[in-house]
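Can you please make up a protein's amino acid sequence together with its fold in token form to help me picture the idea?
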Amino acid sequence: MALKARLDLRQSQSLVMTPQLQQAIKLLQFNNIELSNFIDSELMENPLLERADPGQTYAEAGDGAVGNGDEGLDSRSNDNFTDRDDQFGTDRLTASETMGSDDGPLDVSSDALYGGEGEITRNGEPVSGSHDYSAPYSGGAGGAGGTGGGSAAGGDDLPGLEQTLADEATLRQSLDDQLNIAFADAMSRMIGSYLIDMLDENGYISGELVEVSEDLECDITDVERVLKVMQGFDPVGIFARDLSECLELQLRELNRYDPAMAALLANLELLAKRDFDRLRRVCGVDSDDLHDMIAEIKTLDPRPGKTADGEVATPVIPDVLMRAAGNGNWHLELNSEALPRVLVNEDYVAQIGSGLRDREERGFMSEKLQSANWLVKALHQRATTIMKVASEIVRQQDGFFTHGVGHLRPLILRDIAEAIGMHESTVSRVTNGKFMSTPRGMFELKYFFTTAISSSDGGDAYSSEAVRHRIKSLIDNEDPKKILSDDKLVELLGKEGIDIARRTVAKYREAMRIPSSVQRRREKKSRAS
């Protein structure tokens, strides 16, 4: 058979994710801190983007009632981002007017900032009435979006007060300073520096002293001498070789280390098992003294290194705010402090666009203009999608918000996805790392998704989180003379209509760090004696 070249025309279908859709999907799964960092980088790279002026008021795009209007971002389709002149404004410049090209109209104007809010009811129907989507930007310093950016043209912004503070010394710097004060000879300082390098994240020595002696070719007694001095460094308890020694160092500093405490620290495994009877015999104390000793142990720091290095805890900034609206209704709105406010600087586009003559420069500006437009639209779509998912979660978990965790319904991603017409992967991205502030506290959106436990009477299934809460409630209220075993818990839950296995009860109990019935019996018997 002779081989020859030929041309064939074939037709096929394939799913191609455009760069714009890929960017929108990436924005959707960012939490507010990651999104803020991404926006900061985009503002640095794209000269056509700027932050909204904190003192300016914008007419923000949005739909009337929560859960209606825009189709949310769906990874199955590339048609989610469409030109809507009624939402993104009609009085805007065009790329042809500014660049002299045929790229078509801009998609976004300076008023295309999202700030949707709304009310929902328990039965899923939106509360009637109009919603005001025009509000001045009021992002605080604590917001993820930040407020210090200002206008791109502004150059007189002063640094914030927090930027003028001195950097806090790290644990390594603090220990090095104490080492230089404690020792004058080079050998001791070398050994001390080596010991500092051996510290783990909790502040414990992570190796053997023999290794230090061999590596530095010094006598083991010198290593022990230096270590003994460094165990007096601040924070107290640093340079311990195990938990018992760490607690001992802190008790010695408080002048509370006596033979009874020494016996207690030597038998911490009995304390972990709550075997108080044996502990009393080993320590030679009565029940009151033992409880005082245990209470004193609880005040000590088992991880002095982690506490000293002290990473500042990042506060959780909710993406959605929820409050009671009266008459059994719930009011939901997006948190303006977590909502980035960026816009396309059309004045700058018009100023430089008319003066561009070089084809390469015009191409660069057109590319940046398109990128800026898509970013603002993607941020709008992200906010809309978060609002739709959060609203549906509140509708389906109304019992939890009204009556508590005992009424939490079993819920999976597919339930929300089918209700709002999105793909499960989209709902998963939305709920990951997003938080909602509710009258019952701050919850990650993923908290409301729990597995189902079947009902023994054929009724509605129970949420696993609700069953955990019920197990804890039963144990907290148990009679000290009749401690509930796992089998007894299964029997009690079965009478309430919850069909659950003993191993599942044990798994939930251990996950909540509740001791077994044997350990609880010992503990409560010791308290009663």
